[in-house]
Amino acid sequence: MKQLPQKPSPAFIAVSWAALLAGFFAFVTGLWNAGMQLNEKGYYFTVLMYGLFSAVSVQKSVRDRLEGIPVTNIYYGLSWVSVLLSIVLLVVGLWNATLALSEKGFYGMSYALALFAAIAVQKNTRDSQAAGGSDYAAE
Predict the structure, then answer these.
(1) Cα-atom radius of gyration of the chain, to the nearest Å?
(2) Sign of the dihedral defined by the CA atoms of residues 88, 22, 12, 70, in that order
(3) pLDDT at 134
(4) What is the per-residue pLDDT for 4?
(5) Is there a contact between 47 and 86 (Cβ–Cβ < 8 Å)?
(6) Which of 5-14, 84-93, 128-137 has the highest mean pLDDT?
(7) How far apart are CA 3 and CA 8, in angstroms?
C-alpha cells in the first residue's frame, strides 16, 4: 500500500521560501556590491542560476523515480552531473578570485543555502500536489 505524502505545514513552506530568497538575494546583493568586473559578476550569476536549476532537476528526477514515473538514465545522470558541475564551477571561480577569504565564504554559504532551499521548495510543491492540495504558490 502506497502512502501519500503529508502536505507540508505552512510554516515549513514559508521557511523554505524565506531560505531560498535569503540565499538568492544575499548572493546577488554581494555580486551587486562587489568590486569585480561585469564579466566576473555574470559568471557567478550564471553559476547560481545553473545551480538552482540543476538542484531542482535532481530533486524532480529522484522524486519521479521514487513515484514510478519514468526518467531516462541519461537525464537522471545529467541532472547529477549538472549539480556537481555547478558546485565545481563555483569552487574553481572562488579559488581563483582575488577576494578576501570572508567574501569567498559568504558566496559559498549563500550559494549552498540557495541550492538547499530550492530543493526544499520543490519538495514542498510535490508534496502539496501529491497530498491532493492545490499548488501552494497559488493559494
Answers:
(1) 17
(2) negative
(3) 55
(4) 62
(5) yes
(6) 84-93
(7) 15
Residue 84 grid cell: 556537481
Q: What is the pLDDT of residues 110-124, one digit of tens each?
A: 999 999 999 999 999
Residue with cell 500500500: 1
Task: In whole angstroms, give the CA distance from residue 59 to residue 79.
Answer: 9
Q: What are the backbone dihedrals phi and psi of residue 78, each rounded to the nearest 5 degrees, phi first? A: -65, -35
User: In sequence order, what DSSP letters do the residues of 18-39 get, joined into one string?
Assistant: HHHHHHHHHHHHHHHH--S-HH
Q: In the structure, what pLDDT confidence band is assigned to residue 138 with cuts at 50, 70 and 90? A: very low
Given a contact cutoff of 8 angstroms between Cβ atoms, the answer to whether 122 and 16 are in contact is: no
* Least confident span in 18-27, 58-67, 85-94: 58-67
Distance CA 54, CA 73 (A): 15
Picking from 92, 95, 24, the residue whose alpha carbon sits closest to that of residue 53 is 24
**Identity of residue 69:** I
Question: Who contacts 50 (Cβ-Cβ below 8 Å, separation ≥6)?
Answer: 82, 85, 86, 89
Look at the chain and count its residues: 139
